[in-house]
Design goal:
The protein is an alpha/beta fold. The protein is 48% helix and 13% strand. The protein has twelve helices and nine strands. Strands 3-2-1-4-5-6 form a six-stranded parallel β-sheet, with helices on both faces. The protein starts with 9 loop residues before the first strand and ends in a 21-residue tail after the last helix.
Length: 302
């Protein structure tokens, strides 16, 4: 049963895609006042049924807000929207920056926060559509300890657990951990697709592979989940879209290069996801990277 929060906050959610919409709903259900904005207002309109006020502009959404939460495509998109919101921002407001922005992108966002007197929390999340809708995301967060009480009610509304990685949101310790975690997620997803593709190419029933590894050290629920999505044709609606995963893969590769590390698996994942996107699977779940194993004429084999 939802109970009224001790302190009712006004929260602005900028970006209501798969993750942002679920987060806005859960914040509203926790009893806070929520104003939301999305580039396509039509995609945000269903939130009104949950008591969310949908606005026409970012500035209107953030006007007087105690907390601003951004969940947009990438760092440049988040910076563009925050610049458009600037006239409505209240100095001293907390900014929960949950966009997967990459290291360079976060530097620009931190500079914007300092310029406008915002308290920045670097707070990307781990999870997909289902945990987001259930308010069960894992939040990786960095930000000043003396201001965490201001954002805790919002983080508690959208996540099952918050892992604090540092005191300085501008330093990007949470974003760095998110890139590491996503590198594993993308590698595992690519491996799941290749297992299915190779099985088909060699005339092996994929189920025989899963039966062979069942219960052993090679078995993994995530592998089975992504493989089943492909085998059963459950790629839409996406839990985490190919286009977004491709962007994250590029950020991971760039972060590795900037720090003297070559990430061959991440580079291959980025290429597979880009190929799947070019084949028309961009809006499907990232498990659709499976199709990158085939030419266009071969996709009918799936």
């Amino acid at each position: 049963m939802t109970t009224e929060p001790t302190e009712k906050l006004t929260v602005s959610v900028l970006g209501t895609g798969i993750m942002g919409a679920a987060m806005a709903r859960n914040i509203a259900r926790a009893g806070h006042t929520v104003r939301a904005w999305n580039r396509s207002r039509a995609k945000a309109e269903p939130l009104t049924a949950d008591g969310v006020h949908v606005t026409d502009t970012p500035a209107e959404a953030v006007s007087g807000a105690d907390v601003v939460l951004t969940m947009l495509y990438d760092g440049p998109a988040a910076l563009d929207v925050m610049r458009r919101a600037a006239e409505g921002l209240r100095p001293g407001a907390a900014w929960i920056q949950s966009t997967t922005a990459g290291l360079d992108g976060l530097d620009d966002l931190a500079a914007f926060a300092a310029e406008h007197g915002l308290v920045l929390f670097d707070a990307p999340v781990l999870g997909t559509r289902q945990p987001a809708e259930a308010g069960q995301l894992l939040i990786l967060a960095a930000g000043p300890g003396e201001h965490r009480a201001a954002v805790t009610p919002v983080l508690d509304a959208v996540g099952a657990r918050t892992v604090w990685t540092g005191q300085d949101g501008a330093a990007g310790s949470a974003t760095r951990l998110k890139l590491v975690a996503n590198s594993w997620v993308l590698a595992a997803t690519s491996a799941a697709g290749e297992v299915l593709a190779l099985s088909e190419a060699l005339g092996v029933d994929p189920q025989s592979f899963f039966d062979a590894i069942a219960g052993g050290g090679l078995d993994m629920p995530y592998l089975r989940m992504k493989a089943d999505m492909v085998r059963e044709g459950r790629l839409s609606p996406a839990q985490f879209a190919v286009s977004t995963a491709a962007k994250d893969a590029r950020l991971i590769v760039a972060a590795g290069r900037a720090n003297g590390v070559r990430l061959d698996v991440a580079e291959a994942s980025a290429a597979r996801l880009a190929r799947a996107e070019e084949q028309g699977h961009g809006d499907e779940d990232m498990a659709a990277a499976y199709f990158a194993s085939f030419g266009e004429d071969d996709q009918a084999q799936a």
